[in-house]
Amino acid sequence: MNLPNKPRIVRCPGCGGPSEYGPGNTFRPFCSERCKNHDFGAWATESYRVGKAGDPSPDDADGDILPHH
Description:
Layout: E1 8-11, E2 18-21, H1 33-44
Antiparallel strand pairs: 1-2
């Protein structure tokens, strides 16, 4: 018997709420159009940016390069 695959539920990167990650959610990985547009607006206003080589990682508060294990 073939059961239909249940869509995976992930955390919405916008609000942190549950979001269906599958073809039925046109806003994926976001939960709604509002969260998708909020994220797009942050990129458009340059609140987010892609770091340059040599920029310290936000996870590394001291700016030291940490070895990868």
